[in-house]
Amino acid sequence: MESLDETSEMPFSRWDCERVCLWLNDLGLNMYLMDCRRWVKNGEQLLRATQHEIEKELGVKHPLHRKKLQLALQQINSTGKVKKMDLDHHWVTRWLDDIGLPQYKDNFYDGRVDGQMLHYLTVEDLLSLKVTNELHHISIKRAIQVLHAHGFNPQCLRRRPSPDEGQLQNIPADVSLWTNHRVMEWLRTIDLSEYAPNLRGSGVHGALIVLEPRFNAELFAQILSIPQNKTLLRRHLSTHVVALIGNETQHKKREAESTSGYVPLLPNAKVKSKKFGIFGHKRNKSDADLEDFICPDFTRRQNGVHQSKERDEKAAKEIGAYSKEINTLTDMLARDKFFDNVPTSNV
């Protein structure tokens, strides 16, 4: 099937069935093309379709596929335009390699998780993707935080050391861009080569090391499987971690450890659903909160510092609940501008 011609200015509502099918194919939802040709007459019909119709008539039963389709439709409803997503689901699977979680690539690919879905990813979404390890949840959270900070630039991560890096002191902001592979390279420079392979599939990357208050040298040593009785090696790692992240960042981590209610992060701790069902159909919409999001602060902040906090939280709650009222995404997406400047990736 040929690709959709993005140069056309024709409103989506006036697209015929075949053009809508091309659009679905570009979204990666090509498994629904047969039902689309059977049921969809034009773009207007799809824009007006209810959740029940999308599930029954289009056969979109996968919850993440429904979420992806609804986000795309609400983007069109709010802007009147169709946007090509540069950070598609293929890019996301490569991104999982970068952050050290390749074991989830098949699940994310099957869910067709793309860059826009990362922006609205919830805890329950991750559980449905079989990500149950707490450390892996936090790894994804901090990786998304870095993407937000860099405007979802697909080329912002650092996979290799720069030529002059050896002569310069590492800056935490730069270290936060390190991929899992780059961290493994760093371990080799501090004479811990034999433990570097243990980082594969760990979810350890620069943003986790720098930005996560509960990530410390002790946890790092556990992930690397450095035995408890190798005290000199553990001290060696701790010294280099502090040198890597800087004294200020280390001080903030110490402050976090001293707060009441602090719970250390463990390599094998599990995340449990707070809801009755996978997507919380028995949970009241009012019970949902910003903590449903993997990156709640950034989801709220993307609407601008001058907007009302209550208004943002209300919109975020409705998306987080993933209820039939998901159409309230329209207002959020209308104000969401950060995807406008995402550069095309060849990564």
UniProtKB/TrEMBL annotation:
The cross-references to Pfam families, in alphabetical order and at most eight, read: SAM_1 (PF00536), SAM_2 (PF07647)
Tell me where in this chain the SAM domain is found: 15-79, 92-150, 178-209
Known InterPro entries for this protein?
LIPB1/2_SAM_1 (IPR037617), LIPB1/2_SAM_2nd (IPR037618), LIPB1/2_SAM_3rd (IPR037619), Liprin (IPR029515), SAM (IPR001660), SAM/pointed_sf (IPR013761)
Q: What keywords would UniProt list here?
A: Coiled coil, Phosphoprotein, Repeat
Q: Its GO CC terms?
A: cytosol; presynaptic active zone
Q: Name one GO biological process term.
A: neuromuscular junction development
Endpoints of the signal sequence:
none
CDD domains, alphabetically?
SAM_liprin-beta1_2_repeat1, SAM_liprin-beta1_2_repeat2, SAM_liprin-beta1_2_repeat3
> The organism sits in which domain of life?
Eukaryota
> Which family, according to the similarity comment?
Belongs to the liprin family. Liprin-beta subfamily.
The name on file for this protein is SAM domain-containing protein
Could you tell me which species this protein originates from? Answer: Magallana gigas (Pacific oyster)
